[in-house]
């Protein structure tokens, strides 16, 4: 398999240009968080896994681009497992791409996404556009939560159809219709914020050096990265884990057992 680890880049992204309040409610990160990123990048180097970032984009956008590239490979789509707990990844799930949530130790395919949110993965962007996302300060439509958003999409099919239905008086609940009319532009803005970029330019992708957390090598090619298996250096990984007193992880590395089960 090819293992790639992706980090957010330092500085603003294109979403901040779209909406200046994007993630604006978040407090400054704790002082001890920076060194943890450096440690994570050093761990990637020890394991032999490329650590990637792209200025102007979030890590999720790089992951979306990688998953999309894998999905169009010939002669058949390449299986992809996205390890993460962010619901934004669910919009990428399809027959060849799954999301693995490490905190809940749960795998999400298309059926699991429907069980969780009531819509297929391809409608997750529309769902989030309606319900918003408080953690990222994505506004959505006030008064519409995940269940109501799912009900509307089940009835109308898409966000555009929901908004058209509201404009034509097709929403049964008057307060809900009023909210959709009043916050139409806010819902469309939210869609631009929650939709992951699937076409991050190759020239924007950078390797990251742990010593400075700065770009080390520019213009890393997506296809080249995915075409080459990532040979994990288990001995180096074990030594790294032992040096940081991560004894259980070191034991698993020496036994060639993946840390994530």
- Spatial order of strands in the largest sheet: 1-2-6-7
- The number of helical segments is 12
The major β-sheet equals:
4 strands, mixed
Give the helix/strand class: alpha/beta
For the record, give the distance between the C-alpha atoms at the N and C termini, rounded to a whole number. Answer: 16 Å
How many β strands by DSSP? 7
DSSP helix fraction: 40-55%
The stretches of 5 or more residues where confidence is low (pLDDT under 50) are: 210-219
Q: Which term fits the overall shape?
A: elongated
Order of helices and strands: EHHEHEEEHHHHHHEEHHH
Instruction: Report the β-strand fraction as a percent range.
Output: 5-15%
> Nearest-angstrom radius of gyration?
20 Å
Describe the protein in words.
The protein is α/β, with parallel strands linked by helices. 43% of the residues lie in helices and 10% in strands. It is built from twelve helices and seven strands. The chain has helices spanning 14-18, 33-47, 59-71, 110-117, 124-131, 146-156, 159-167, 174-182, 184-194, 222-227, 234-243, 247-254; strands spanning 5-6, 51-53, 80-83, 97-101, 106-108, 206-209, 214-217. The strands form two sheets. A four-stranded mixed β-sheet has the order 1-2-6-7. Strands 3-4-5 form a three-stranded mixed β-sheet. Strand 6 and strand 7 form a beta hairpin. Helix 5 packs across helix 6 (146-156) and helix 5 (124-131) crosses helix 9. The longest helix has 15 residues, at 33-47. The model is unreliable at 210-219 (pLDDT under 50).
